[in-house]
Amino acid sequence: MTAKRRLIPVSEVQEMLDFLRGQGFQFADVDVRADGVTFFAANRARGNDYDRWKAQQDQSRDRPARRQ
What we know:
This protein has 68 residues and is an alpha+beta fold. It has 2 helices and 2 strands. Strands 1-2 form a two-stranded antiparallel sheet. 0% of the residues are buried.
């Protein structure tokens, strides 16, 4: 047998939403699942830390190879 899937009550989601808004949290996205709700913050920078690191590594690719 499988357990019955229940959604989080709307009152709990609304309470958390009101709390986060009161704290100045800005939302980019909300993911509602059977086991919970995830609020995603608005990301001011494009990409993640890896993307920024990779962009720094790729800067040298624009230069021609050294000749010996």
